[in-house]
Amino acid sequence: MIAQLSGTVIGLGPTSAVIEVGGLGVVALCSPGTTAGLRMGQPATLHTSLIVREDSLTLYGFAGGDERDFFELLLTATGVGPKLAQAALAVLTPDELRTAISTENLVQLTKVPGIGRKGAQRIVIELKDKMNAVGLASVPAAGPASSNPWREQVSQGLQGLGWSAKDADAACADVEHLAADDPPASVAMLMRAALQRLAKS
After folding, report:
1. For domain 150-200, which CATH number applies: 3.40.50.1820, 1.10.8.10, 1.20.120.140, 3.30.450.20?
2. What is the pTM of this model?
3. Concatenated DSSP letters for 56-71?
4. Would you say domain 4-62 falls under CATH 2.40.50.140?
5. Exposure of 166 by Cβ count < 10 A (0-12 exposed, 13-18 middle, 19+ buried)?
6. Which segment of the chain is annotated as a signal peptide (predicted)?
7. What are the pLDDT digits (tens) for 145-171?
8. At 18, which helix (H) or strand (E)?
9. Which of 95, 106, 173 is nearest to 138 (CA)?
């Protein structure tokens, strides 16, 4: 098990990062909110989860240990794979997920693309009693976004999660006023707002 990855960021995409560790470039699949907090050429630490399949070894990276722990908890639910678990953590924080599951808030859970009402019910049934297994979460602070590139980063991140370019552009337009009202707004915050708009549509 690889639980943590520390090194220099040598590659960065909307949903992945390459961290150089001891001369090796290790690829980690990340949520758009996590990659938004990374910078090329800068040191970074990711909390990771290694998913082993018959034909692949895939490393998933998270800004905080709470996100990683909840990712692994979600994977224990029937029908929830890594991509869906990552999408859930892109739309809702660990605290929001914990509250939604504990209170059986299916409406909140179905905001996640790929989770329907039946899927939400199954997650609640299977995970409600496990909520104490994951401690109280805190949302990691993300660095401030530049005034220009946020739209491209958010759009690419949404497309990386499976939304169409048209839907991604529409969501960016919906949250553009947030960036105008609060120039230091982080890409992670704008991404979350865009995802929530898409989930409601």
Report:
1. 1.10.8.10
2. 0.65
3. EEEEEEESSHHHHHHH
4. yes
5. exposed
6. none
7. 344 467 777 887 777 777 777 888 888
8. strand 16-21
9. 95
